[in-house]
Design brief:
The structure holds two protein chains of two kinds. Chain A is an alpha/beta fold. Chain A has a single domain, classed as P-loop containing nucleotide triphosphate hydrolases (Rossmann fold, 3-Layer(aba) Sandwich), CATH 3.40.50.300. Helix content of chain A is 42%, strand content 16%. Chain A has helices at 17-30, 47-50, 61-65, 71-74, 100-111, 127-134, 147-162, 177-181, 188-195, 208-215, 226-238, 248-251, 256-263, 268-273, and strands at 4-9, 35-39, 76-77, 84-87, 116-120, 138-143, 167-175, 198-204. Chain A has an eight-stranded mixed sheet, with helices on both faces. Chain A starts with a strand and ends with a helix. Classes of the chains: A alpha/beta, B alpha+beta.
Chain lengths: 274, 85
């Protein structure tokens, strides 16, 4: 097997990178792929919590690269999706404790055994970022429709291009349809035009993400969640399916009857698009 | 109806979406024009080398830098020619 390494990055922290990693990784595994997700945010790990695996960690990324355990021992099998594995970041070390070469060689080993290796990149553009992008053939840049997030995404895109990563696509997260309609938030087309990049997903703001994170169950398992449905579509697009992009502003119900249908789980617009 | 009222109110105080767009565009434009110190140094050397092919320059008296004026960026150089030319 020769898998593909994809880095999930953003520049700015707090835009939903880790949530996106957990959900895209889970959705890819639910499509019968073997998936390994790696948390490279050393010192501030969180992917384990989002995936509900925080109590299963014995060995971490630093243990593997420093040879204190075998790779198989650090791969934590997901509770829900059978072929999904996590390598957690070390919590008590700092970002400089692993080298770029160590992470590259780890990803190469994983590519032999997995269809997808997804690297959750730390915020910022320092050594941790440089390590995380070094092994990637593709990058997914997560941003939100906010000034600071878009500016940082632009900077990160420049660095990814300089690192010769050709396949770069955007996930625009937390689009608030009501705010867009009121003219209080930039829409997806604004962001895409400014960053001059293709999007692979337009994810609506969704309270269900908070409850899913609280329970340690990725939101892709929640059929009622609009963001969960979009993460499922993102995974399908990564996997080569040609699904049209759905703007959450078009998908969100506006009439009272639409809202009633949505509450009852009869989402006609969403099902018509996929 | 309420959406329409909200939109009108937003328009009155300067559409936040438009304001955000302009601010991002301005920030990105500036960031993309940022010239690093190594770039500037390489540019200075290349310029002095090119000018030196035509006129004798005194590099130790050269001023070279980037100046910003609003959204515009200017490359400013002041090259002193050697005495006696």
């Amino acid at each position: 097997m020769s898998g593909k390494t994809i880095v999930m990055t953003s520049g700015k922290g707090g835009v939903g990178k880790t949530t996106a990693t957990a959900n895209v990784g889970t959705a890819l595994a639910l499509r019968s792929n073997r998936v390994a997700v790696i948390d490279t945010d050393i010192g501030l790990r969180n992917l384990d919590v989002v995936m509900g695996l925080e109590n299963r960690i014995v060995y971490d990324l630093v243990d593997v690269v420093e040879g204190r355990c075998r790779l198989e021992q650090a791969l934590i099998r997901d509770k829900h999706a059978g072929d999904l594995y996590l390598i957690a970041a070390a919590q008590t070390r700092d970002k400089d404790c692993i080298t770029t070469q160590q992470l590259v060689s780890l990803c190469k080993r994983l590519e032999d055994d997995f269809d997808y290796v997804i690297v959750d990149c730390p915020a910022g553009i320092e050594q941790g970022f440089r390590n995380a992008i070094a092994a990637a053939q593709e990058a997914l840049v997560v941003t939100t429709p906010e000034v600071s997030a878009i500016r940082d995404a632009d900077r990160v895109i420049g660095l990814l291009q300089a690192a010769d990563i050709r396949e770069i696509r955007l996930i625009i997260n937390r689009i608030n349809p009501a705010m867009v309609r009121q003219g209080n938030m930039m829409d997806a087309s604004d962001v895409l035009e400014m960053l001059a990049m293709d999007a692979i997903g337009l994810v609506p703001a969704d309270d269900r993400v908070i409850t899913s994170t609280n329970s340690g169950t990725p939101v892709v398992y929640d059929a009622q969640s609009a963001s969960g449905r979009e993460f499922v579509r993102i995974a399908a697009r990564i996997d080569g399916e040609h699904l049209p992009l759905i703007d959450p502003v078009d998908e969100t119900p506006t009439s009272i009857m639409d809202k009633v249908r949505n509450i009852m789980g009869i989402n006609r617009r969403a099902s018509a698009h996929v | 109806m309420f959406d329409l009222l909200r939109k009108n109110r937003a328009r009155g105080r300067g559409n936040p979406r438009q304001v955000a767009r302009e601010r991002v565009q301005s920030a990105i434009r500036r960031d993309r024009m940022e010239v690093s110190a190594p770039q500037l140094s390489a540019l200075r050397d290349s310029m002095l080398c090119t000018i030196g092919e035509h006129l004798p320059v005194a590099p130790e008296f050269t001023e070279f830098g980037i100046q910003r004026d609003g959204d515009e960026l200017f490359l400013i150089s002041r090259v002193r020619l050697q005495q006696g030319h």
